[in-house]
Amino acid sequence: MRPPLVLCLVIALCPAACATYREDLNRGQRMYEENQYEHALALWRGLEDDADSLSATDRARYAYLRGMTDYRLSFRADARHWLAIAKATDESHPGGLSAEWKGRMEQALTDLNRDVYGGGGERFESGGSRAVEYGKAAPGE
Question: What is the domain-level CATH number for residue 31?
Answer without folding.
Answer: 1.25.40
